[in-house]
Design a protein that fits this description.
- It contains 6 helices and 4 strands.
- The chain has helices at about 5-10, 25-35, 55-75, 80-90, 115-130, 150-155; strands at about 50-55, 100-110, 135-140, 160-170.
- The radius of gyration is 17 Å and the shape is globular.
Length: about 190
């Protein structure tokens, strides 16, 4: 049974984009990953695996590679969020990983038909577990533009038979974003 405390976990998690430089103990990272592995998966195949990166130089190299590509991809997008993100990408010292001390790449077995769905469910569990442990997180979609660069992708040391699904940064929050209104979803009831 979901208690209000459990529900609050879902309602209070926010994407964190400002982190303290403090390292996260390996035991905490392991607990976050362990919680991820309790996500549902098609046929209970659990196609996920994880690459934990704490090398700030490598993260900066990936960020430096991705930023100009993202700027180019967004050249024709001129809504408020796109303009704001483009300005961030162009600013000095900006990292797509927000200078977080930990980056985890969630990878899935390439042969698994539902790996993207399964690994995304796993990633959400990880982000909720991190929140419960006082660790902030943010899904980083920008890494995807590096997936086709052999030199960059080699740095992630992805084992044979696996492919990337997404990257998440983790760190102790140095901000507390306020909740914002959520759009009312379209709900169709069929009875």
């Amino acid at each position: 049974m979901i208690t209000m405390d459990s529900l609050d976990l879902f309602l209070t998690r926010r994407s964190i984009r400002k982190f303290k430089p403090d390292t996260i103990p390996d035991e905490v990272i392991s607990r976050i990953i362990h919680a991820g592995t309790y996500a549902p998966s098609a046929l209970a195949l659990q196609p996920w695996a994880f690459i934990v990166i704490q090398n700030m130089d490598f993260m900066q190299k990936v960020s430096d590679y991705c930023k100009p590509i993202m700027i180019s991809l967004m050249k024709d997008a001129h809504d408020g969020m796109s303009d704001k993100f483009r300005r961030l990408l162009q600013s000095d010292g900006y990292s797509i990983y927000y200078h977080a001390p930990v980056l985890i790449m969630v990878i899935g077995k390439s042969s698994s038909r539902f790996r993207e769905i399964d690994c995304s469910l796993c990633a959400e569990n990880m982000m909720l577990a991190a929140h419960a442990l006082g660790v902030g997180s943010c899904w980083i979609g920008s890494t995807e533009v590096a997936y086709n660069n052999p030199e960059i992708i080699a740095g992630f040391q992805i084992p044979d038979g696996y492919s990337p699904v997404g990257t998440i940064v983790f760190g102790y929050p140095d901000e507390k974003p306020e909740p914002h209104d959520k759009k009312q979803p379209l709900i169709t009831w069929i009875r």
